[in-house]
Specification:
2 copies of one chain form a homodimer. By secondary structure, the first copy, chain A, is α/β, with parallel strands linked by helices. The first copy, chain A, has 18 helices and 14 strands. At the A-B interface, α7, α9, α16 and α18 of A face α7, α9, α16 and α18 of B.
Chain lengths: ~425, ~425
Amino acid sequence: MELSEVLPKYWYNIVPDLPRPLPPPRDPKGAEFSRIELLNKIMPKEVLRQQFTTERFVKIPEDVRDRYLQIGRPTPLMRAKRLEEYLDTPAKIYFKFEGATPTGSHKINTAIPQAYFAYEEGVDHVVTETGAGQWGTAVALAASMYGLRSTIFMVKVSYEHKPMRRVIMQLYGGQVYPSPSDKTNFGRKILSENPSNTGSLGIAMSEAIEYALEHGYRYLVGSVLDVVLLHQSVIGLEAMNQFSAIGEEPDVLVGCVGGGSNFAGFTYPFIGAKIGSRYIAVGSAEVPKFSKGEYRYDFPDTAGLLPMVKMLTLGKDYVPPSIYAGGLRYHGVAPTLSLLLEDKVVEWREYSEREIFEAAKIFAETQGIVPAPESAHAIKAVIDLAREAKKNKERITIAFNLSGHGLLDLTNYQDMMVRYS
Amino acid sequence: MELSEVLPKYWYNIVPDLPRPLPPPRDPKGAEFSRIELLNKIMPKEVLRQQFTTERFVKIPEDVRDRYLQIGRPTPLMRAKRLEEYLDTPAKIYFKFEGATPTGSHKINTAIPQAYFAYEEGVDHVVTETGAGQWGTAVALAASMYGLRSTIFMVKVSYEHKPMRRVIMQLYGGQVYPSPSDKTNFGRKILSENPSNTGSLGIAMSEAIEYALEHGYRYLVGSVLDVVLLHQSVIGLEAMNQFSAIGEEPDVLVGCVGGGSNFAGFTYPFIGAKIGSRYIAVGSAEVPKFSKGEYRYDFPDTAGLLPMVKMLTLGKDYVPPSIYAGGLRYHGVAPTLSLLLEDKVVEWREYSEREIFEAAKIFAETQGIVPAPESAHAIKAVIDLAREAKKNKERITIAFNLSGHGLLDLTNYQDMMVRYS
């Protein structure tokens, strides 16, 4: 099969296939301004249209497909044979390797179409916020691919202590400001109150939105929203084609959950096609949103600037502990995934940092790939499933999404090695 | 074409196809011990046999082919379309991306067969030295793939200041010692003379060889020797299959040169098959071995423990400046490549650090991949060639080997950004 045949022509939208209607986003009662109206002003129009579409399949623009090919899509679907041997399991284990893209994670899959739709509108500048830098890196690259300028507000504590992500964004031509910054009214206000404020994702997002609004730029969003999950479906659609080419079908599909976009991107096409019988979302035991979260309307962002959505949440003001899998510290779960968890279509597991460190080490030694600490959560679940399959003598096929590599997380592993070895 | 069809069944050895016989390795006159005899004691027997073979094609063991597939070989051959557009050149530019393997460079291509041949002999432990860590990482992974233990002597200054490479070796299960260490007589002697000695590649190699000898382990070698170049030919052989599948043929082939193994691995199969008309080796202007080196017998290693070979060399005691492309600081050029340079079959170019930094930035912005600083030398040559093609209105096809990605070199880029921006 040619690469361009593996790459889908349409993204898949699970909204029309949900077991019941998705509760719509809404503005908070008595709000002083409309968040939904705000989205209209800052997001590329086509992105916003896709955010609210109920079409099952949304065409991927040819130009976006070309860029997907340029960044190395389709990513490989690999069999983890040596992990199987190590576990001495009758289960087959496959993984989709999103770390094979140049920015090292799945984030680029939505950054490219969002940048494209901004470019198509004639806008020449995109803006976003980033915590550890994974999303900002994807935006900087996607912007450079369309000749757009990019401005990224990076949480100051990361800007100062995780400079490598900043360097890669700058190599891609991105303008990176530590947030709070003096580039926005909001940033200046924070700084005047406390010049040594080290920032937060909420502050950075507020700055990015203000900056986009003031200059007429477009704001790009990295996770949680339906449109992001839609774009990420390229992962699962490719995997379906790849499984079909080798005559296999997965029984169990596994992914880690930060906001939910890599998990949804990988599993939703299989759920929609009724392939597989179990779908397992994996989170951090230190950020227990599956076991302790409530299903209710909440803000998807800590700044409270986006419309409220109904989701599983620990509360927008929840302060997560400082775990190494920074991408899993998010307080909520994407609305469609929350609904599927409520309705038991999707199962969940939570693992501690010590457990996922051990799983990461086993995976590195057997498969040679250092996984992102976030992805190591999925690996831990897969190891447990494969051991259960051995106990039950089940010849099942397990597939998981390796959402990113860990080459930019080696300082984290160094610390974990000291802590857990 | 199936992946396993792209992957060759034989490695290619250029020795029988050289324009004249390769001057043989030899012991220094009046040596107190035979270096050739030493190789017999520490290298896996089949590796040594391959080092001295004059067969044109050497069979790749099926098991090694399987491992090649497991680490993601064949690596992609990609067209650098956006770089072409940026340069507005009539030339087509292709690159082979060796950074797609899990250790991020081509080094794994020879680590796997060397570990395999050690394993086949019934040895359960391999030893090597490493400077910045690229080679040690490949050995640690290859060893783990065969269930072997690995011990890596890492130059102390790198061990202390470049801890990320140490962490990745440890994640692969490698035992890493800072060298000079207290694990060998040689290391203890050095330390007793100067406890704060920060080490050198020569010291680390001496320790690795002593350690292998004393314990009956096998020593693995990372570059320069003919057998390493033989194993690296998998790069060029795959590329030939990939070019053939798309109905293209490169006119000019380009690679950077540290010891010469990635350049040779990429270009030799094309030279042997008489495909292409120009082969361009690229070095660092700060380590001017092409322009200032002499073609004479010299030690390939700074410790003087290996047999002397006839090669282009700045002298084994040459002290290179501290450039960011650590892999290009080597004092010599592999014997076969030296001969091909002498006989003008291969051309050379040398570029300054400032020039290659600019090239790396252009490549990152256009193609989205941060190249290793070593590989950025090849990119700079390609950019110049494409500009010359524009001037001369030549519709040529240029191909280069992107020997590694730069995600573990971001601190280097950060420093270069400050220095050259």
